[in-house]
């Protein structure tokens, strides 16, 4: 009994102390309330994150800026953070109400930028890195991200040559290019190699490009062409935030081809015959019938552009995102739906859809989990489902048909409703038949992207500042195409017989609709494991990284053994940075990696770089208050490029077992011969780019003015080329000549960024941003045979430099022909033909007189300039982009009149209105000939156009407001906007878009007028 009483006594005492401790704790806790406002204009700030320092306790402000949070005592410290504003920490003390005002960040010095395999403070970066505010990209309504990049940041060069749905992505280069092989940059989305045009702009958190060796050396054999880093959005602490954005655009096709009409075409035929003193083909009565439409089947007058293409179409882009979380789990999810329609006209009687259309469904989910104070995990899942619908005939063939089918060849349909055509092969390509009657193609492209990562802070286990990070990704891509091709019947109308019955010649019989299926699939694994170190020792700051990675890509439908083998790349990357008092900066980066594509023992390479920086404005002697930051930096190093072109495993020699055959012996028996199909090169390797960069970063007036200037130079060695100096007498077939890393090039230039921004006390803000890039690539060595004349060598010329004849004008008369050097391209030239310069002065004009003319198609200068203004809820922005030092040949079909003989090929009005005639010697283009004119139809300065342009790339007007009555239903803010892209273009061509490829254009670009709304809940 005494023992029981003693036990009971102990329990009562324990309960008493527990109750006392609980009561004391409860009494120590209190609730802090208050309001958070902006120091700029006093407006309340919504979604400000408030955390009790050192604890997982946190909250966010309501739309009116108010908040409430429990704290454990007077010593608790509240930390207030909000994007674009300086963080603030306040000790609670005896206060129960804390109203705080956050200051807007006046400088970008505290920003963090994404670098290779990590992040660094912008103030201490020594490499050449450029970025762009994501909202600038979102103002351009395009399904393809690459189309929004032109002029957006220094160092990037783009050219969009087609507007076809699903195939409208622009070519992207960083600082031009240092090779004539693969020039594309490495594109990484969340650290993994992925397609830039599969990313929805609403999913992007940051977009940056790495330009110099210091920034790209860690990528080793993939860094020479520059690197694009895209980070998708991640969750933030706070209650769930839902954003729905919808935008719908009317698209107008720009610069549709303008061809001459039937009477003009028939008259041009007569003119061509008259120029060669030949009898005319059409009488005045014939010309009248072409004009009045009295006999539309024998005297057709078809506007094929109007028959096949429509000017206006439609696009919609929709996104719904949810983000939120707490100190343990943060999440971001976005779903997107995009539709882009084409400009092809549809036959109402067709049972299937033939107009081009691209549909895309995007899904992305990023989850961050804090397992403990030292361990965190990341999980990312992305899905892209893209569906395409197209006519049974591809776009290039459709636009070629427009170029070669004249308005008088035949009508769209014959009197009996059959599709018209003619016996000549190219005249069977009725453009309307191609678009509406040739069947259809359905395309599916599906991508699944999975990423899993983790980080473990080893500060408490090993040493302060040490952490380990891992990443694994799996991407799977599948594409399928179902082609239902319909060979429709083609007839040529011959008029009526004596009895009044229509007569036809059957050109092609109708055939059943074919079924063809094509598919492709691939998968890619990527793994990386990194050890990171970040430590401050007094005035010294040191960081380090050692990373190993491996990527394996497998073509699941390769079709042959060689290409079915895995494509592998693996290696190590390292980085060490040193910072003394934020004044003197040094950095060493290196990559040691390789590829399975090279000979054993020569698969790996070492690519080092060094960089340094001096923040002059942090020196004690600096006393210029207007300059808040002045940094001088430089870098030097080597980077590689293993995307060298050619077949796989170029070090292997392959044998053709069905080579030349021979007959031997008395009976002349047949023996199948063997020969070398491909001659291997045991020393084949990657390209090596040696890069140097000098940069200047300047901020003035507390970030109101930002200037960034970089000058760069690159020498590229080891460019893969097929041997060109091996003569035929050696017995090698041209297709068996070996490849070797003999090419060399250099690339140099300048890029810069200027930004001016300010926000007044009354809330009015403005931002001016301008970019400039100049990059010139020069070929310094190739393996071409030494030309007869030195001026025809490509050595020392820009890469892709065009060659052609120099046009001096036109022959005025026969006397001018006789006193000029003989032109060897045709038997007889006449007045109105092009007169070329005899460059070598040998008395003859021939191919030896070709010289470098114009600039390469990829522009050497790209610039952009934009401005944004805002006051209260109103926003206005404009953005212009432009290029210079680039040329375009507007030539070929529809500019070379009657290229395949009389009555062949369509004619652009540009040629028709500006051609040479006996009455018009002040012309832009030569006379019309009744046959192929090999003298006039040549690459020359006559058809060379300056492709420089300035384009109003985008403009936007928006208004942000809140609806008080809807807040109780969860609706926080509404943003209504109207924006447009490709709104106006100023150039010298005006016939086709200045971004087009050589020729007379293809699927045109579109102008978008986009209406949208964004709802925040």
From TrEMBL:
Entry keywords, A to Z: Cell outer membrane, Membrane, Signal, Transmembrane, Transmembrane beta strand, Transport
InterPro entries, A to Z: CarboxyPept-like_regulatory (IPR008969), Plug_dom (IPR012910), Plug_dom_sf (IPR037066), TonB-dep_OMP_SusC/RagA (IPR023996), TonB-dep_OMP_SusC/RagA_CS (IPR023997), TonB-dep_rcpt-like (IPR039426)
Family label: Belongs to the TonB-dependent receptor family.
Record-annotated membrane-spanning stretches: none
Coiled coil: none
Name of the protein described by the UniProt record: SusC/RagA family TonB-linked outer membrane protein
Originating species: Chitinophaga cymbidii
Localization annotation: Cell outer membrane
Signal sequence range: 1-28
NCBIfam families: OMP_RagA_SusC, SusC_RagA_signa
Membrane topology: Multi-pass membrane protein
One Pfam family, short name: Plug
Lyase recorded as keyword: no
Keyword Acetylation: no
Top-level taxonomic group: Bacteria
